[in-house]
Amino acid sequence: MTDFISGFATALHPLNLFYCLIGVVLGNIVGVLPGIGAIAAISILLPVTFYLEPTTAVIMLAGVYYGAEYGGSISSILLNLPGTASNAITTLDGYPLARRGEAGTALLTAQISSFAGGTLGIVAMVVFSPLIVAFSLSFGPAEYFATLLLGLVAGSTAVGNSPLRGVAMVCIGMLLGSIGLDLNSGIARYDTGFPNLLDGLSIVAVAMGLFGIPEVVANIRAAQRDEKPIPISAGAMFAAFRKLRSIVPSVLRGAGIGGFLGPLPGAGPTIASFLAYSVERSTSRNPQEFGTGRINGVAAPEAANNAAAQTAFIPTMTLGIPGTPTMAIILGALMIHGIAPGPQLVGEHPDLFWGLVASFWVGNVFLLLLNVPLIGVWARLVSVPRRFFFPVIVALVCTGVYGVSNSVFDIWAVLLMGVAGYVFRCFGFSPAPLLIGFVLGPMIEQYLRRALMISNGDYAYLFSSGTSIAIHCLTLFVLLWPIVRSYRSKARMRAEETS
Amino acid sequence: MKTLKDASGGLLIALTGLVFLIGARNFAVGDLRNIGPGFFPVALSVLAIAAGLLITTLDVIKKAHAQMSMDLRALACVAAAIIVYAALLERAGVLVTTVLAVFILALARRPLRPLETLLLGTGLSAFIWAAFVLGLGMPLSLFPDILQ
């Protein structure tokens, strides 16, 4: 707890406050705008972080991530169009409320629930992170290998529609990750004569190419509907404060579900919000009222996705395992600054870790202060024609990636990754597993080779501790679960057909 | 033709794996006890090829794989804009490159609004120059080199 309080000294440093504000404002904006996600915004901001202290950089990137959860609910409620995937469920009750003239109530519920969910998620992070760190400090290469493998398998099979496609993308990602100088042998792999590739393919180019460019290609020609957001004023929001007492249990349930699901690899805010909504509906005395504009149907998912957005940082920061591609990019930003992710991070860089956690809460306060009084501004942002944003994204991507090493080589790399990412996406391949493979692949190879060196090539060493065996069992479960699930749902469908 | 379309997603993966396998032909694989720098690339390439072929087989059997249609015009415009950046940014400066790229992107959709596009391109150049060159100190100039 004292660590957490001392973290505020870092978080309240004027420079960190400034970049935290930039992060959450940008996150809020991309959250409000449907079609532009937090991950695209974070990859665009990555080059900027080269010029910042690592703590400041991560504070800003994280702000974009959880800021988008706040902003996304605004377009869900006013436009019936989810700003991000994890706000999709909020449209079900938020939009009917707004149509009924209670937009202020819906928005205030969403913002207050987001804040409460985020705060509870931060509390969970403060409580559980030191425990996980204490447990994992005894990890050797075998346990690391097991944990990374779990992250890789979970990240590849849980995201997207088909586990097989996920595995294929992970392989491609790990192959791309193997480009560059091999640390053990000093051999250059796949450098194809380019000295720029000796340090490996830049994660900035890979992230921007995979997540920024295909999004632009897919949306640049989409006709924009004539969207008229429901008008809203700050006064209507302040007037709704007295209605909030009834949402307290929903918020607590939602935050609990979100806080639990957030750290699980591949789960994340979207699944958390859907689950929180269905729990809310099934525990309600009037389930038929859901979907017609109940504020509990807004409160639970909004608390859940914000809690999950915060607790997602637990495995990323304490174990070095990114559960989602966004977390993979944030890990990549740390590695760019020479900070090795893993259990030793909290001990070696306590100011970074606790400063980041404290900044989460500062950022959540910023978002609440920004969104409640300034709601009119965000509502107007929704009606700005989207055609203005795509050139801005392309220009920022190209100029930004140039700054990675002041070389146009990385712009060509963005071109290649962008075209490949778009084509893969058209064939139903999700880019998320590729990025997770790209980040985790080199680490897995490193730890496996280190483990084999320690044990003189004896593979039994990988299963020599209870911890590593338990983690491998979990990995096996994650790998086999989709198969069991699809078999069960097929069996159920067959049973329904015959009955 | 329809079958080819179903098959191509997995084939693309297999082809990518093949390219990496060929690229890894000179790396020492080592043996299982002492794995060399080529072990991971070769193993992953083979796994990718296998997964790709399996995906192809399943997609062809199922026939009904939902596929997004590829928007070649949008892809060409975005790719061309990136190429403009890669080819011109260092030589022609931020202003010319950005305005040109913004016009190419504007070609993706109709109708073309010349004045709006020009204003957007100029404003964007000014922002990029202020943020990246003045703010972050990137070694880029606003105008082409010949003017300086």
UniProtKB/TrEMBL annotation, chain A:
From the record, give the transmembrane residue ranges: 17-42, 115-138, 167-188, 200-218, 319-340, 352-376, 388-405, 411-440, 461-484
Cite the entry's keywords alphabetically.
Membrane, Transmembrane, Transmembrane helix
Residue span(s) of domain DUF112? 17-435
Which PANTHER family does this one have?
Answer: TRICARBOXYLIC TRANSPORT PROTEIN
Q: Which organism is it from?
A: Nitratireductor indicus C115
Q: What's the protein here called?
A: Tricarboxylate transport membrane protein TctA
Pfam families per the record? TctA (PF01970)
From TrEMBL, chain B:
InterPro entries, A to Z: DUF1468 (IPR009936)
Which UniProt keywords are given for this protein, alphabetically ordered?
Membrane, Transmembrane, Transmembrane helix
Q: Name one Pfam family in it.
A: TctB
The record places domain DUF1468 at: 8-140
Any transmembrane segments, and where?
Answer: 7-27, 39-58, 94-112, 119-143
Question: What is the protein name stated in its UniProt record?
Answer: DUF1468 domain-containing protein
Protein's organism:
Nitratireductor indicus C115
